[in-house]
Amino acid sequence: MIRVHVLYEYGVDHRPHGSAYIRLLNPLRHPSIAGRVELTAGEDLQSAEVVIVDRTWKYDVTLHAVEALIAQIREAGACLLYSIDDNLLDLDLSGGFRSSFTLEQLTVIRLLAREADGLLVSTPALAERLRRMNEAIYVLPNALDERLFPDPALRAATAPRPLVVGYMGTFTHDDDLYLILEALRAHAGHIELQLVGGISDAAILKGFQPLSIQVLNPAGHHEYPDFIRWMGSALQWDLGLAPLEDTPFTRCKSDIKFLDYSLMGIPGIYSRVEAYRHTVQHGVTGWLAGNTVSDWRDGLAELIHQPDLRRRLALSAGQWVGANRTLAVCATQWADAIETVVRNTQHRKARST
Questions:
Q1: Which of 27, 69, 288, 352 could form a disulfide with 334 if both were Cys (CB 3.0 to 4.6 A apart)?
Q2: Do 3 and 50 contact (CB within 8 A), yes or no?
Q3: Among 103, 115, 101, 107, which residue's Cα sits nearest to residue 51?
Q4: Fold equal for 2-143+327-352 and 146-324
C-alpha cells in the first residue's frame, strides 16, 4: 500500500474546491482501491511516499512557498505529483477569471508542472498543452462518485408545470450562456430557465427577458459532496444545457457537465466542441449543437416538444456514464498512475546512484 498525501486546492473558507474532490479526494478514497492507497489530505505537508499538489494549492500561494514545498518533498525522498484539470495557462485574465488568478499563480503552475515526477490531467488536449513542460503525463478522465448521486429512476414525479431547462456551473460562464441567449428567448413562454451559478454579472439576466428565469441558491450546501446531494433533491429539470465557447482554454476542458447531468437523470444539449463531441453520441446519449443561434434554437425545439426523446436520451446517457465513467469502474486508474510514478521514480534514482 502506498501512502499518499494530497495538498488540495482551497479558498479563503479553507474548504477543498470541488475539483479537488472530483480529481483526487473521491477517487483516492474510493473503496475499490482501499487496499492500494492510504490517503491523507490537508492544507499542509505531511509525511508520505507520494505528495500530490492540486492546481494552485493555496488561495494566497506564493512562488517562494512552492519552492520551499518542493525542497521539503525532495529532502524527504517522496514522489511529487501535480494534478491539474484546466488549461489555466491560457486563461484570459481580463475575463471572468481576472479576480481569481494572478500572474504569480500562473508562474506557480509552470514550476509545479516542470518539477513534478508526474502530471495527472483530465483530457488528452490538456496533456498535449503541458507536454513540453513534462513528458510524464497521465490522462485520467473525470469520473464521478456514484455513491453521491440519486437513482434517476427515483426522480420525483411533479405536477403539471412549465418545462424547465437548467444550467449549472461556476460563476465564470457569462460568455457561454450568452451564446444561447437568443435561442432561449425564441422559446419564451414555453420554458422556464433555472440557473445554479453560471453568471457573475447579474445585469446579464436582464438580457434573458421575456424568458421566465429563476436563480437557485444552494443555501449553505457549498462543499462538493453536500452540493451534489442538494442538486439530486432540488433539481427537477426536464433538460440540461451545456453551451461552451471554442477557445484555447475550453479546448482542454472535460465533459464534466455530461457526467453530472447524466447521473442526475437529466437529458442534455451540449456544444459540439472538443469537450463533448468525442463522448456524447448525438441523438443517443445527448444532443450536440453547433455554436450558432439556429443550431441551439432548433435543438431546443426538438427536445422541448419530444418528451419521449428526452426520456430515451436520459436513460441511455445514465447507462453509459454508469458503465464507463464512475469511480466504481475508474478509480483503479488513479492507483495505477500513482504506482507507475513511484516505480519509475525508483528506477530513475537507482540508475543515478
A1: 27
A2: yes
A3: 115
A4: yes
Among candidates 149, 139, 110, which has minimal Cα distance to 262?
A: 149
Q: List average pLDDT for each run of 10 residues in the chain, which is 353 residues long.
A: 97 94 98 96 96 96 97 97 94 57 90 97 97 96 95 60 86 77 90 83 75 85 91 92 93 96 96 96 98 95 95 97 98 97 83 69
Instruction: Give the pLDDT of residue 100.
Output: 63
Between the two ends of the chain, the Cα-to-Cα distance in Å is 25
Domain 146-324 has CATH 3.40.1280.10: no
How far apart CA 226 and CA 234 sit, in angstroms, is 12
Q: What architecture does CATH give domain 2-143+327-352?
A: 3-Layer(aba) Sandwich (3.40)
- Residue pointed to by grid coordinates 433538460: 239
Q: 6 pairs with which residues across the strands?
A: 41, 52
Task: Identify any residues that bridge with 2 across adjacent strands, giving them in sequence order.
Answer: 37
Task: Determine the Cα–Cα distance for residues 285 and 210; give it in Å rounded to an integer.
Answer: 31
Domain limits, the chain: 2-143+327-352, 146-324
Task: With beta carbons less than 8 A apart as the criterion, state whether 326 and 144 touch.
Answer: yes
